[in-house]
Amino acid sequence: MRDIKDTKSVRARIGLVATYMVMIFFTIMAIYPLLWLVMNSFKTTTEFQLNKLGLPKDWVVVNYQDAWVRGKFPQLITNSIIYTGITTVATLVFSFMAGFAFAKIPNKATKVLHGSFVIGLLLTLQSIMVPLFLIINWVGLYNTRLGVLIPYIGIAMPMGIYLGTEYIKSIPDALVESARIDGATYLKIFATIIVPMAAPVGVTVAILTVTGTWNEFMLINILTSSDVLKSLPVGVQKFAGALSSDFGKQFAALVIGLVPMLVFYLFFRKEITKGVAAGAVKG
To answer: What would the pLDDT profile of 183-227 be if each residue is shown by its tens digit?
Structure first.
């Protein structure tokens, strides 16, 4: 019996060691590209071409200064914050109001309307880029912030409505009915009952909207022509053109573009984990 227990103990330890080795391997695979990018952002082009894997001999901090000024990053970051903030708030409000109506307010048109929204999940951005451009140009919103925000909100809403509706369905109907008996309006029920109880899936929708809007590149590139209205990904892409031979400044621009999302994750990592788990269970 003792030999059997010892054998099981050895197998368990070997399995544990193997698990940790696999986890360490994938951790290194995930972190090393970031370290490589940061490391090479402090090199000159000549040093990068001669030594792509080693540490820089002279840390060229001026790469970041030049990239920050040439790329006009203060304006780009401000634009990205405006687009992402307004899109996220509007998506949460409109999606959950629609989800509340679809889940708790019976009507003959509910299924048709809900289906018309959710079908947006099947559409790819590439398939609607040309129609969107033509419509935005036709209504006179080309090269305006509003002309960017309306498509952003419209594209984000199908997922928000789908997750919001499915989650709100799990909220007991008795809560809504008792509030209606007490004389509460649907707006008050939405604000005082639905919103607090649907907060977990709201975090999920917010995460998806923030990351999707912040990293969006193709749509804003065709809906705006002025550099004043461009967002961060478009600004980073410029360094692949005029400064394609200056690797140090290219890498510095990429690092600057990565920092906001890394900070977002570090500050909200617990909420991200809880929100994704809640969305997976209830959605």
So the answer is: 888 889 888 888 888 888 888 899 889 989 998 988 998 999 888
| Tokens read off for 73 | 């990053």
Identify the residue whose tokens are 């951005």: 125
Closest CA to 209 of 107, 111, 86: 86
Cα-Cα-Cα-Cα torsion 29, 34, 39, 45, nearest 10 degrees, comes to 100
- Structure tokens given for 105: 């307010």
Closest by CA position to 40, among listed 20, 11, 63, 21:
63
Alpha helices in the chain (DSSP H): 2-40, 45-50, 62-70, 73-104, 110-118, 125-138, 145-169, 173-181, 186-189, 195-197, 199-214, 218-223, 232-238, 247-282
Give the separation between CA 61 and CA 65, rounded to whole angstroms. Answer: 7
CA pair distance 65, 96, nearest whole angstrom: 43
List the one residue out of 280, 267, 272 whose CA is nearest residue 207: 272
Please give the pLDDT value at position 281.
47
CB atoms within 10 A of CB 92: 21
User: Which 8-state DSSP code applies to residue 108?
Assistant: T
d(CA 74, CA 29): 32
Name the nearest CA neighbour of 223 among 156, 128, 124, 145. Answer: 145
Q: Identify how many contiguous H helices and E strands the chain contains and give both numbers.
A: 14, 0
Residues whose CB falls within 8 Å of the CB of residue 22, separated by 6 or more in sequence, listed in order: none
Q: Tell me the average pLDDT of the chain.
A: 84
